[in-house]
Amino acid sequence: MTAKAITSTIAAAMIALATLSASPALAAGPQGPHGLTQPNVSGHQRWPDNGHRRHDRVRYGWGRHNACSPREAVYKARRMGLRHANVARIDRRAIVVTGHSWGRYGGHRARVVFARYSRHCAILGQRGL
After folding, report:
1. Is the pTM of this model over 0.70?
2. Among residues 119, 124, 123, which one has the least CA distance to residue 67?
3. Are residues 47 and 79 in the same domain?
């Protein structure tokens, strides 16, 4: 065999070995957390479905509850200007947050009522703000 034939044979063998060693990694696709595959080009998630995917839904924002939590209600009341805001009562339909409005000598007592089953804590009523 000539030197040119030997060189081309070695080059072809190296390319074949490189292709074979990289093929399992390429076949699996990009890896995400815990070895799960990342979303494909169309944006759909390709997580393995074994019947209980609640932890995936919560982590990635799927199936978020359309209800106002007491923590969200207090946070919104503080952003509205209520000082020392705390939950006074939680009913079936409403969350009542009380506190003080801005003013001298500790301010005036104020109350904000939020809808319980509203995604962004809709305001049902307010007093003293």
Report:
1. no
2. 119
3. no
